[in-house]
Amino acid sequence: MESTILEPSLYTIQGIIILDNDGYRVFAKYYDKQMNLKEQKAFEKNLFNKTHRANAEVIMLDGYTCVYKSSVDLFFYVIGGSNENCLILASVLNCLYDAANQILRKNVEKRSLLDNLDTIILAIDEICDGGIILEADSHSVVQRVALKPEDIPLGEQTVSQILHSAREQLKWSILR
Predict the structure, then answer these.
(1) Whole-angstrom Cα distance, residue 41 to residue 28?
(2) SS3 content of the chain, % helix, strand, coil (to 5)
(3) Cα angle vertex 129, ends 126, 133, to 5°?
(4) Phi, psi (5° rounding) for residue 120?
(5) CB-based contacts of 64: which residues, under 8 Å, 6+ apart?
(6) What pLDDT digit, counting tens, does each position of 46-57 carry?
(7) Based on C-alpha coordinates, what's the Rg of the chain?
(8) In this predicted model, what pLDDT tens digit does every residue of 72-103 receive, in sequence order?
(9) Strand 74-81 and strand 13-20: pairing?
(10) Least C-beta-crowded within 10 Å: which of 26, 132, 147, 159?
(11) Cα 20 from Cα 14, distance rounded (Å)
């Protein structure tokens, strides 16, 4: 009897989905090209129905491993294959959620997310490209999506960011 050993792959993520509290798509990016739009919508509806009242963080659905987190009126999902490591998927989910939390200034709700959707999409592209995880550190992601230090409230800036900002202001005041 021969067992099949799966070869490791960099293509870990099958999809990243953000749904509102009614189960409607706010954002969805599928890296698994096997589903058409109709199948994606049916999968999302089924996924929402199974998770919107559950207390778990992981669900197996239609041959996929799904990790999820909810906030106010949004549900964040990271989808992987059936044999994917839940801890890896959860680290991507946490990175996505924490980056969104920083970008939206701790106001992770549908209205705020829609107002900053361009930056959130950039953050998702920094986290994952074509199903390959690129980054799992939310601070690095936020820095890469060019959130300018002057846009970050003073209380949330690091000491180095404050010193850099002061140095820049001093440099420009001297050059005038």
Answers:
(1) 10
(2) 45, 20, 30
(3) 80
(4) -65, -40
(5) 14, 79, 80, 81, 82
(6) 999 988 887 778
(7) 19
(8) 889 999 999 888 888 999 999 999 999 999 88
(9) antiparallel
(10) 159
(11) 20
